[in-house]
Amino acid sequence: MSAATATKARTVKPPQVKPQQPLFIGGRWLDSVSGKTFPTVNPATGEAICQVAEGDKADVDLAVKAARKAFEDGPWPRMSASERGRVLNRLADLVEQHKEELAALESLDNGKPYRDAIAADLPLTIKCYRYYAGWTDKIHGKTIPVDGPYFCYTKHEPVGVVGQIIPWNFPLLMQAWKWGPALATGCTVVLKPAEQTPLTALRLGELICEAGFPDGVINIVTGFGETAGAGLAAHSQVDKIAFTGSTEVGKLILQAAAGNLKKVSLELGGKSPNIVCADADLEVAIPGAASAIFFNHGQCCCAGSRLYVEKKVFDKVLDGVSEQAKRIKVGSGMDPGTEMGPLVSAEQFQRVNSYLESGRSQGAKTVVGGQRAGSKGYFVEPTVLVDVKPDMKVVKEEIFGPVVVAMPVSDMNEVQAAANETTYGLAAGIWTNDIAKAHTLASQLRAGTVWINCYNIFDAALPFGGYKESGWGREMGHDVLELYTETKAVCVKL
Ligand code: NAI
Ligand code: MG
Quick one: which ligand is closest to 224's CA? Predict the structure, then answer.
């Protein structure tokens, strides 16, 4: 998803950004109740882009009331399913019409290369809305034969008001993964975007108005996690909370949700194993392994961050991946030639640097990278570490940066045990030409997604989510509809 998809544009048109950005509640643009704002920062320079309304519990409460009213009394859950699909398709069309502008805004606010945003984030976002527009009139129950003179059937009804808290790594796409199924099923929504990247969510608020969603169906409260996010997770009038982010906060969401036992779905961290077998086509596996970790600067929950390579080919794969890492062009995401931008924030920059430091102090060897790139902004060099042990922090914990640990393995038994030796279980990769080995390993790996001879392949039709501490539930595909509906059994005496 990197070099091959380079845009031909020489420059990226800087997006227009309003200096003050309000909240979107009940179809209206409002300042926060407290009047407070916070800056969103360009990670390539560390400078503020604009001020954004700082929503808090009071604003969340207004947004939940608006969503509740839209759910209880509004047209949205009552309109025909196909009409809901038409509105969702209009949103998809509007996103498509504005895709260059949205890709530039995403690049500015998040730091990711424009060329990745336009080649990956935008098409996946548009497809996601279209895919769920198509589901609206295909959500139906069953008739069920039971004992006795009864006619029984099931219905799938919207779960109600949904709170959605998303991260900053793929802002538009994470929003689409959340909004698509929620809107298709007839729920109403309060979205809390990540404080690091609120701008594309707010621009979508404007497109929501143009697409013709009734007031209150979608509400956007920008603000911080500990205040706005926590308020949404704990709110007694929210029926379901959907969260993507750190495992640590996922556990807090779970506690907050206990008050009214709202439904919870969680898409959390990972430390995904990527396995290169000696019989793999290394011409494909080497760039594949590099892209598995370096795509989106390693800021992917499913990043292939633990690279296991069969001993026979370890040196060759290590050299190849290191060579790829050296060649990556690091720079401002708004520069069309850039292949890797800055990390999203000063906090993430410090976090990744502290992992690099911990790797060094625990005895890992840096083959390539390992340093800050440039002197301003939050750039880190693509990094390959070797000589690591299973108990090192760089092997066990999610770094969420462009840092891969490479480890030699003797055989498939060893690799299976090592790959599963993690508290996470989001994704895994296997590179081999042996079809039996591929499928055997795929079933042995405790992970929600297994990619064979590919990595980071996403489609709205494919479920995604984690085993173990990588989460609860599956997003996308048909599976996610279950997270946004209640099943009602109706039983009639004949
Ligand atoms: P985070 O989990 O704190 O933030 C994700 C979202 O949760 C943001 O919208 C944030 O405002 C919100 N949030 C934070 N605290 C909350 C709370 N107490 N209640 C409700 N909502 C809350 O992640 P952060 O701090 O941005 O990144 C830290 C680490 O988390 C990363 O280094 C990475 O390891 C992991 N992460 C994983 C992601 C994934 O896609 N699974 C995405 C982002 C981060
Ligand atoms: Mg946090």
Answer: 1
pTM value is: 0.97
Question: Is residue 12 one of the residues assigned to a domain?
Answer: no
Given the residues 50, 187, 277, 301, select the one marked as catalytic: 301
Q: What is the pLDDT of residue 2?
A: 43
Same domain membership, residue 372 and residue 237: no
Per the structure, the count of domains in the chain is 2
Q: Is 194 in the pocket of ligand 1 (CB under 6 A)?
A: yes
* Domain co-membership, 405 together with 482: no
Q: Are 272 and 427 in contact (CB under 8 A)?
A: yes
Residues 298 and 414 in one domain: yes
pLDDT at 8 over 70: no
Q: DSSP for 267-318?
A: E-----EEEE-TTS-HHHHHHHHHHHHHGGGG--TT---EEEEEHHHHHHHH
Q: In what order do the strands lie in the sheet with 218-220?
A: 28-30, 23-25, 218-220, 188-192, 161-165, 240-244, 263-267, 471-472
Using CA atoms of 385, 386, 387, 392 in order, give the dihedral in degrees to the nearest 10: 40
Cβ-contact 476, 462 below 8 angstroms: yes
Q: Is 398 in the pocket of ligand 1 (CB under 6 A)?
A: yes
Identify whether residues 117 and 193 lie together within a single domain: yes
Index of the ligand 1 atom closest to the CA of residue 269: 41
Reply yes or no on whether 414 is catalytic.
no
Range of the domain at 358: 273-460
Centre of ligand 1 from the C-alpha of residue 249, in Å: 6
Task: For residue 345, give the ligand 1 atom closest to its CA.
Answer: 26
Residue-level pLDDT at 11: 81
Is the per-residue pLDDT at 256 higher than 90? Answer: yes
Indicate whether 135 and 189 sit together in one domain: yes
How far is 191 from 222, CA to CA, in rounded Å? Answer: 8
Is 225 touching ligand 1 by the criterion CB < 6 Å? yes
342 lines ligand 1 (CB under 6 A): no
Q: How do residues 390-425 score in pLDDT, each as one tens digit? A: 999 999 999 999 999 999 999 999 999 999 999 999
Examine the domain organization and report whether 74 and 89 are in the same domain: yes
Active site residue 301: yes
Which residues contact residue 400 at a Cβ distance below 8 angstroms, ignoring those fewer than 6 apart? 169, 269, 298, 299, 303, 348, 351, 352
What CA–CA distance (Å, rounded) separates 336 from 6?
8
Of 267, 339, 381, 398, which one is the catalytic site residue? 267
Are 284 and 262 within one domain? Answer: no
Q: What's 477's domain CATH number?
A: 3.40.605.10
Same domain, 377 and 475: no
Q: Ligand 1 centroid vs 95 CA: distance in angstroms? A: 26
- How would residue 9 be classed by pLDDT, with cut points 50, 70 and 90? low
* Mean predicted confidence (pLDDT) in 69-84: 97
C-alpha of 395 from chain center: 22
Is 302 inside any structural domain?
yes
Query: Is there a domain that residue 10 lies in?
Result: no
Instruction: For residue 444, tell me if it sits in a domain.
Output: yes
